[in-house]
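Why does residue order matter? Because the sequence determines the fold. Keep that principle in mind as you read this record.
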Amino acid sequence: MFRYLFIIILLVLITSRLKAQERTSLTGRPVDAVNVFLGTSGDHGQLSPAASSPFNMMSIGPQTKPHIHTGYDYYAKVFEGFTHTRIEGVGCTGSGGNILVKPILGEDLTTELYKKQDYAYPGFYSVSFENGIKAEMAVDTNFGIHKYEFPNEESSLFIDLSYAFADRFVAEKHTIHANVITGYIDTKTTCDVGVYRIYYALEIRNVSELKPSGDYGLIAVRENKQKPMEVRVGFSSVDEDYALKKIENSFIRLETLKEHTTTNWNQLLSRVEVKGEKDREDFFYSLLYRGLQSPYLISETDGAYRAIDGSRQTSDFPVYNGWAIWDNYREQLPMLSLLYQDTFASIAKSIANLYPYGKQSWATMHEPSPTVRTEHAIVVLLDAYNKGYAVNFEAIKEALITEVEQLDYSAPDKALESSYDTWAMSEILKITGDTSLSKDHALKALKYKSYWNTDFADLSKDDVDKMQARGLYQGTIWQYRWFVPFDVDGLKTLIGGEDLFLKQLDQFFADYNYNHANQPDLQVPGLYNATKQPWKSQKLFRNIMLDTMVQTYFNNNSKGVDPYIGKIYNNRPKAYLRTMDDDAGTMSSWFVLRSIGLSPANIGDPIYYLTAPIFKSVKINMGDSKILNIEVKHYNKDHFYIQTVYFNGKKLERNWLTQKELTQGGQLLIETGPKPNKSFGIHNQWISNLKE
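Structure:
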């Protein structure tokens, strides 16, 4: 009898599970595919599972001991508490870590929080500890809720207003009104360069008393031992009043908040619909999620915001901050410019808006949010303009010229990077009608050739494969020598023609000189697209995304020290190569774009090279009822060589499309095969318009 009953129950459970799986397959949401624990262990991404919402400075997440740059490590067991800010995937031991909240037993600050299990998805994080304490948290834009459940005994919350990553706390000022704490906190930002200020309001519920603890700490004692404690947090870059307004809605609950934010995430992720192998779909959305964390919306609904000189201003567009442009101008910002045009329009205006208030290469002393650096902003602005975004160059022209005049040429890599910005300036001056000045800057940009001949032409020297030789920042002579994205045709001539260019490019990859753990040579796998052998880029892109690669460089070694053989990208806590920071969505966005078949040719020109998508189909909602459908003809998950391309029914001989063509929507049909079609894409190659 019991045996039959057990079988019946088992069948019911199996049937229910199958129905649930069927519902998921029919109505599955992109947000459900996101693995927020990807890249959260060691120096393999520097990412966090914190509760976050799109482009939001506030992210409430766990602080473990030990931890990576975002305050957490997946395999760590001991928790210090929970903090409210972080920039995902940046170096210099990270940025943020403001306002630590630690649940404690009694009033014992040494209460051990030993992880039993944690769980998270976009917008929500929870963890249970061995001592019976459980924590949950969810956020929306600059608003968040924590909830803490305790055993039925005396318990409290410890709040440390001076907590920050890497001891970067500068100053704070706060006031207590009953159970509400308001104030501001000043903190050094990434690499200790500059200071950001956050205004906040904390409302603590189910509290009987707020006691001071040390210079900057408070203990909130639980009142009703049968009920959980709750912390409601509001942030603002403007003042305390705006922060207080964030917590005025006393009726919203944590469950409602997390459902709301999850819905917002799903709407944003759903802009791109990919169909293919489930593991690839899951990985795609997990990486796309990482590309939508920053920059941060810092203006209020009425347009009020703080500029980078600390002054209070009002804007008629949403203002963003929290920059890592030296890193993500290459991939994340181009990805946003194509897939999230509404957001990018304001991001571009926000970058231009840095100049009237004293933009610097790194952070200022009055940042309205955690930030990193802004080199190559001029290239991003040119890129935005050439893609159809509104940029008022006349209003900031003098500031742009001043920035270009102060560029650094003191090291080989800086000389090439400064030449790139100078080229962008020449193009901007052409747009504004300053023809003569434009020519002067174009000629100055072309002087990269003398720097290149001095340091990058001779590959017989014994330091060409040594990390940071000759004062290079984060790369080798081999890696930086290709950094002339604005004049690839000129670079070919310098090297001795396309045949020698290809020979040296082949040698670069054959000798494992390519380093995907950092940005300096990130554009090099795509260079074959500008030659008569574009199929080699198609193979490299697929290998880097999904196959085994040999990597001999990391950010803490020279060639030959413990090489890595395996996949570069993995959907797991140790997701990337060691020392491969995601750098504010850079490395994630590199994967996202190429996985759907597109690769930026040169930031500053509205051109995307074509490669084989890793999916059977991709559907992109470009807005205004414009849909771009990308389909792979004769799809085979292991085929990556392009045979033919049809765009809106017409056969395409070139291997690139423009921003305008893509954003107008239509049908892009890419036929792939197991062997390269060596006649596709070798004619009418796109080249930059820089001339002697």
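Confidence is low (pLDDT under 50) at residues 1-27.
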